[in-house]
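hiii so um. not sure if this is the right channel but i have a protein structure encoded as tokens and i wanna go backwards to a sequence. like what aa goes where. can anyone help
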């Protein structure tokens, strides 16, 4: 893993993370605990960390329901999460 930092947007605010980490790791680095709400309104977060449970779904660059645990953060990426925190 690199020690280089990348800058990305999280709910339209500039954040940073180490290059080469997943979006879910970048969220954790920025003290984000939950990534979305269930249909009943419960906060949900990454559970399995390997793309099976789909609990870490976020919107990345306008594409909905992408798995944050399976997507690497990159420079100027836009990540939108539900307001759970």
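sure thing!! here u go:
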């Amino acid at each position: 893993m690199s020690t280089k930092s990348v800058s990305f947007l999280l709910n339209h605010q500039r954040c940073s993370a180490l290059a080469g980490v997943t979006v879910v790791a970048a969220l954790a680095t920025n003290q984000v605990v939950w990534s979305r709400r269930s249909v009943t309104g419960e906060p949900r977060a990454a559970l399995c960390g390997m793309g099976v449970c789909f609990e870490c779904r976020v919107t990345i660059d306008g594409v909905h329901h992408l798995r944050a645990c399976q997507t690497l953060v990159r420079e100027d990426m836009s990540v939108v999460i539900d307001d759970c925190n």
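oh and The mean pLDDT is 92.
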